[in-house]
Amino acid sequence: MNTDQTRAPFFESLLAEKAFAPRSYHMPGHKFRPELLPDLTTWLGAGWAQVDVNECSPTIDYLHSPGPALREAQALAAALYGADATHFLINGATSGNQAMLLTAARDGQKVIVSRAAHRSVYAGLILSGAHPVYVPASVHPRTGLPLAVSTDAVAQALAAHRDAIAVHVTGINYYGYLPDLPALVGLAHAHGAPLLVDEAHGAHLGLHPALPRSAVQQGADLVVQSPHKTLGALTQAAWLHVNGGRIARPALVQALALLQSSSPSVLLTGSLDVVRRLAALDGRRLLGRAMALAARARDAIRAIPGLDCYGSELVDPAHGIADHDPTKLVVDVRASGWLGTQIQTRLREQSRVGVEFADPAHIIASITLADDDASVDALLTALRRAAATSPEGSAPTQPVAILLPPIPPMALTPREAFGRPTQAVPLEGAVGRICGEQVMPYPPGIPVLLPGEVVGAEHVDFLTAQLAHGVRLVGPEDPGLSTLRVCV
Ligand SMILES: Cc1ncc(COP(=O)(O)O)c(C=O)c1O
Q1: Same-domain check for residues 317 and 223
Q2: pLDDT for the residue numbered 395
Q3: Which of the residues 25, 177, 274, 467 has the least number of beta carbons within 10 Å of its own beta carbon?
Q4: What separation in Å is there between the alpha carbon of 98 and the centre of ligand 1?
Q5: Which of 86-95, 327-336, 388-397 shows the lowest mean pLDDT across its residues?
Q6: Could you give the C-alpha distances from 239 to 264, 275, 452, in angstroms and in order?
Q7: Ligand 1 atom having least distance to the Cα of 91
Q8: CA 88, CA 308: separation in Å to the nearest integer?
Q9: pLDDT reported for residue 393
Q10: How far is the CA of 39 from the centre of ligand 1 (A)?
Q11: Final residue of a domain: which of 279, 312, 337?
Q12: pTM of the model as a whole
């Protein structure tokens, strides 16, 4: 196998085809003529048409049956992370989570899943027909955020469900915190089950010695990453790493073919090849710079009145948190009197600065290998300005104390509940009925009810209290929850 990371074999085939530029009588229908769509040309420049090639050109490899250039490109990505194999994805980590579950479990088979998982995990449960055993998500008391799945909770779930055949966890999460992956690998493997890790936010992990190691390096069996989130690949470009012999590789390839377009865009796959080369050749330097910039920003944010910035002090095995990615700046705005969502708007409107995320208590700014001193200075100036004056008559906000109700009993698996006819009933009248829609207070973004689960009085009481506190509910058709959809 070629391990020459200076190569970008698939990208080089794209460059060669662009230079060759044969006259086209095949897809795509624009025939590489930018004048056909002047609006696109105004937006993207005339180059858009020449690069949108596909496997109709015999020198361009096809994602679903890769030729030598794409095989080598994927092998180079695998070598960079220390995986046995890597698959390029064109539908984000979303398709990776779905493929992992579709590969690891079939109808009715039990899978241990964290309740605080991304919605693509839930989609994977619908697609696979698996029977989820949810591990309760804990909400970190200081932050009000779910920061990591607890090792003990996973151990308990495995002990109670000897027939579970796979474990799926979120590795590094949106906020940059990691669970104890070596312990989770040990637990899953001792049980004879593969560990599937959603590492969408961690494509940069392991590429610098001071960053946490990737789940791949910690022994997980399947790991999905979104290099478009943290490394600079184009949006939707992701990859899925495979390790060891616990995963049926042909089943994984089938799942990926089922889930992804039969017309994969080379813009996405080509960007993966060059991002991998950049990460391999210069990632250590660039990520070292990103960490130094983030450290400077964290100190400076902590000195801005009304703002705080979380860091490694939240790493705490008692809350399942084993490690921290220092490039994430999770800014606690509560003492400023502003809501995080207001700070986000002020940053944009006052200073033309956009941040990753906002909830009532926080904003997240991520520092990547694209940042430099000037970009960090601009962020700091904008934050000082946004937090400078408290809004009229405001008091510092506090997170709503969140003690989530128990996970409801499951009457129908996600697959069984999917597409069931439902009807809207008054919330009080939903007690004892099978829920037909997802209800997730945001924050913390952990579902209280999922389709197929039996609604209890404690869920109705909890959701009513959340609404009274002004918490936004994601999922229900009626976000004010006068009615809830239940299965008929
Ligand atoms: C934890 C987590 N997993 C998976 C995804 C899906 O990733 P993608 O946008 O690459 O499909 C996201 C997206 O935000 C995420 O936050």
Answers
A1: no
A2: 65
A3: 25
A4: 11
A5: 388-397
A6: 14, 12, 31
A7: 11
A8: 38
A9: 67
A10: 31
A11: 279
A12: 0.96
